[in-house]
Amino acid sequence: xxxxxxxxxxxxxxxVAEELHFRKAADRLFISQPGLSRQIKQMEEIIGVxxxxxxxxxxxxxxxxxxxxxxxxxxxxxxxxxxKQTRLIDKGSDGEIRIGFLGSAMQTIIPELxxxxxxQYSNVQFSLEEMSNHLQVEGIEKDQLDLGFVxxxxxxxxxxxxxxxxxxxxxxxxxxxxxxxxxxxxxxxVSDQHFILFSxxxxxxxxxxxxxxxxxxxxxxKVSHKSVHAxxxxxxxxxxxxxxxxxxxxxxxxxxxxxxxEIPKISQKATLSVIWKQDNRNPVLEKIWRFL
Amino acid sequence: xxxxxxxxxxxxxxxVAEELHFRKAADRLFISQPGLSRQIKQMEEIIGVxxxxxxxxxxxxxxxxxxxxxxxxxxxxxxxxxxKQTRLIDKGSDGEIRIGFLGSAMQTIIPELxxxxxxQYSNVQFSLEEMSNHLQVEGIEKDQLDLGFVxxxxxxxxxxxxxxxxxxxxxxxxxxxxxxxxxxxxxxxVSDQHFILFSxxxxxxxxxxxxxxxxxxxxxxKVSHKSVHAxxxxxxxxxxxxxxxxxxxxxxxxxxxxxxxEIPKISQKATLSVIWKQDNRNPVLEKIWRFL
DNA sequence: CTATTTGATAACCCATAGTTATTAATCAAT
DNA sequence: ATTGATTAATAACTATGGGTTATCAAATAG
Lengths: 292, 292
Description:
homodimer; alpha/beta; D-Maltodextrin-Binding Protein, domain 2; 3 domains; 5-stranded mixed sheet; 3-stranded antiparallel sheet; 12 strands; about 40% helix; elongated; DNA-binding
């Protein structure tokens, strides 16, 4: 039977591979179970490989099926993005670029980038999403993201990294706090305060750096609260629940009842880096590359 | 009409995009022209993009179509390879790895690699093809090759390179030539001879190095013949048509009427490098990586 | 031992890929 | 202009095969 493999087969295969249950997969696909069974069987015949082990009571993937699932996930992602890009290009757009970023990057580097790119390529569309370091790395690896703005010491193989901004750290205090620029000499002056920090799973490098800043001055901070949003942290500081240490550039763009005091004489820097995949196939990336 | 895009559409689209002629494309696909026309039209409707400009006398791709063609070429290549790998895994094989190499790599590094990998993973299949530096780089870029063994100073972005073997150069002479190991001091002793070299388009770095070896000794070689095959070069030397300079390791594995004299006191080295793409998706590559 | 769950089989139906026949437009050559 | 050749689109038809319902057979649970 000289059948031909089609995307339909792949779609059905993935549904069964995920559900590991023919009827549930069929429901999800809005087709009948026998129809699904036949298509899967046909697919196995076409490529000549048993993909599922049916134990009459349990369905599981073979090793080959496992491999195929992983690749087909990637292939579908690529096809979807390609069609999306094709539509954008057709509409006269220069395409879309998908950017992930830490909140702090929104204060400095990202707005600059958007403005510069927009001047040159007014038809490039941006898809911006705030997300953690970890999720950005994952997004880049899975080709679901073109650029990421992270604070990381190193990234997995296959991902490129380049520093785009080096920032100092600032102490964040309630507006009515007794410390001022003139009488602020040393971070140890707040060693007895409670600290509010970014969660370590949002950015573990950040977390470690804050710890080392304090340790260098001879104390371990009492961490009372953690959050993933700068705004939340500021609100907590404003409410008198503690103090915080954050990258200095975060003081712009918010209108809150806190004050920033740049921490003098410390070696730690808040480095922001872009990450990307070397052989990203999004043509937009080449265009905007020189703006980084 | 809630149609669904299928690989069939992609196949047909690529045929028309290549032929730029509906009837010819239809012939190639062994279907009728109206059938093809309708499928293309349907595809355009599904993704909502005009892919071809039909001037009633000439068919051409739109910008969006051009982009789509490039990506679909890549996607089909990926799908084909994935299915091939799936079949191999199913057969108990650990998959296939596609290696390109310069002839000279077959003397040293490649046989070693094959033996070592085979000990550990007896089910990994090798696809070996001798090809020029240039074609290897192209193969790597298009994901049609997993590893390349080249002699290059640098490679395009997105491709990784690592030196695996550093070799000296040897002078190749007919067996009855008056120069012997004892009376061979300097390459200038053959400055009046004709030279037979590898073609510069087979390996331009090699070509440049040979030239610089001679220039360092104060002469420009008279190049009388060029070839892409070591065997041919040796045959020409044997026939008395000239002398050659090649990487020393080439002396093993051939049984020819020529003799090798290692060239003393020169700075030039014949460096052989592996090249690969960082995010190659062939799982076999990871496995054999440590053997390099 | 019965009830239930689940995938495979069998037989049928109809949507649609592909067919043939024809038309309409464009161009080249007289 | 007229004719002829090329080429894609349209129209009408055909039949393959994807999807359906009904049913079975094996495997577990209670």
